[in-house]
Amino acid sequence: MPVGRLDMTSLEDEAVMQRPPFHLAIPVGDIHVAREFYGNTLGFPRGRSAEKWTDWNVHGHQVVTHEVEGGSGTPVSGTNPVDGHHVPVPHFGLVLSVDEFHALGERIRAAGTEFVIEPYVRFAGEPGEQWTMFFLDPSGNALEFKAFRDLGRLFAV
């Protein structure tokens, strides 16, 4: 694979696959619990690790879980009203294919993880129509996963 090219074969839009990968480091209270959640529940491949941190390949992006002293604190600062729901802020996640989105929702449900916002279609009939779901990792970090039937509408206004 050429340098700078992402392995995101599930996305239909070539323009999105040309973007450079991002790096995000997040605090966790227990690295072993984080490894179970990000590796087994979410299914992300594990990269480099040390005693207190782990790199995750999140569809070509680098997300690092760092165990922090005193636990992870309170990662969610507040909420923002969006489409009748209280969206936790901050949050991060991925835009998946519709099939991947539904498969992940089922894995999250089967793992016993509670949804902050259950999977549903947001902005139905509007340019930004999308499937979305929110849940917290075991350390309280908010994650959002979404899917567009037409990925070309990702930034539609």
Explain this structure:
The chain has a single domain (14-153), classed as 2,3-Dihydroxybiphenyl 1,2-Dioxygenase, domain 1 (Roll), CATH 3.10.180. It has 3 helices and 10 strands. The chain has helices at 14-17, 31-41, 98-110, and strands at 23-28, 46-50, 53-58, 61-67, 78-82, 85-89, 91-96, 115-122, 130-136, 142-147. A hairpin with a 5-residue loop joins strand 9 (130-136) and strand 10.
Helix and strand arrangement:
Elements (H helix, E strand, L loop, with lengths): L13 H4 L5 E6 L2 H11 L4 E5 L2 E6 L2 E7 L10 E5 L2 E5 L1 E6 L1 H13 L4 E8 L7 E7 L5 E6 L10
Parallel strand pairs: 1-4, 7-10
Antiparallel strand pairs: 2-3, 3-4, 5-6, 8-9, 9-10
Could you give a quick summary of the protein structure above?
The chain is of the alpha+beta class. It is 18% helix and 39% strand.
Q: What CATH first level would be assigned?
A: Alpha Beta
Considering the protein shown, what is the CATH homologous superfamily? Answer: 2,3-Dihydroxybiphenyl 1,2-Dioxygenase, domain 1
Q: Structural class of the secondary structure composition?
A: alpha+beta
Major sheet attributes: 4 strands, mixed
Mean pLDDT rating: 89
Please identify, by name, the CATH architecture.
Roll
SSE succession? HEHEEEEEEHEEE
Helix content: 10-25%
Q: What is the number of strand segments?
A: 10
Low-confidence spans: 1-13
Per DSSP, the total helix count is 3
- Our measurement of the CA-to-CA distance between the termini, rounded to an integer number of angstroms, reads 33 Å
The side-by-side strand order for the widest beta sheet comes to 1-4-3-2
Which strand-content bin applies to the residues? 35-45%
Query: For the CA atoms, what is the radius of gyration?
Result: 16 Å
